[in-house]
Amino acid sequence: MSPSLLIEYGLDAVSAVLMITGAVFVLAGAIGMMRLPDFYTRMHAAGVTDTLGAELIVIGLMFQSGWSLVTVKLALLGLFVFLTSPTATHATANAAYKAGLKPLLTRFRPGGDDQNGSPL
Amino acid sequence: MGRRLVYGFVLTVVLAVLWLALSGMWSNLLITALGAASVAVSVYMTIRMGVLDGESVPFANLIRFGRYWGWLGGEIFKANIAVVRLALAPNLNIKPVLTRVAADHGSDLARTTFANSITLTPGTVTVEVEPNGFLVHALDESFADQEAFRDMERRAVRASDGEAPA
Amino acid sequence: MIMSAVDFAVGAILAFAMVIILIRLFAGPTLYDRVLAVNAFGTKTVLFLVVFALMVDEPAAIDIALLYALINFIATIAILKFFRYRSLEVALSAMALRKALDREDEE
User: How much is the pLDDT for A116?
Assistant: First the structure.
């Protein structure tokens, strides 16, 4: 096996690990959005996917695309998501708070038999 | 005047590189001329809005910010795993809290960096900005650790203003 | 070959996450839950587009993803602004005035 092929396989392996990890985080965030009890707590679950999940998938794709203009565009996209997602989350939270939506501030602990958690 | 000339030059170069990277058009003369025109209009509008300064062209502290983002990335990773573990636990057991975090050091840029860092770190979101602090919502009381916020503020101020807060 | 299988798997997981978020979008219950769901759905769309672009080797889809990310951010801000002021033409100066008045009220 030639060294260049070995490097290619190595990059592919790194890319696959990063992307699968990112996808798992995205899925966990979505499930969190379903299960958590109120708006403010769901916001945290949505944040999980925006920060780590999205960045991991984008970085994984950058390993896969080789060195081209596509890599540069992916890096720009990652930077953009990294900079705007906290602003969007803060804007949503701030609008809800200003509108008088009260956060749940007591311990939330549904019984053991209630596996679905959040009331729809 | 001299500093603004430097800022204008750096902004022009950055915008030109951005345009070339996004379009991938190097050869067609007409398209490239239109690109140059769009860069010129953007720089002109920046000057006209009066925002051509160190805040809109923050190249001077890019290295410090790079180091700060590296540290922040590690924090985000740790907090993410904690949040995922909480949200996927078979029996949900969380106690959300609203807490006030003092933030009265440094420039506006430092405060913005600090507030955005709090929001970026999963488990805590800045809900409201007050004159000398933030109102922060935390998913669980274990995320609302005042010592950790102090450490993050120290690093954010050092990255933005280049010096440790008094 | 293997990589396109990984891309396919990641795309499938993303699509599944999008379905879950759609359920949250319809379930609500508050306006802000829906805005949050729309924003999260947009982020997932961007990711799906990028994965799709490399899976079928269609680099143009990355440009669409970039544009979608920009629009997604602006749309979120615009929706929130509309529901706070019931108008999109509130100028920045009017917002600043309102903020100053709010502060006076609090003191």
Answer: 46
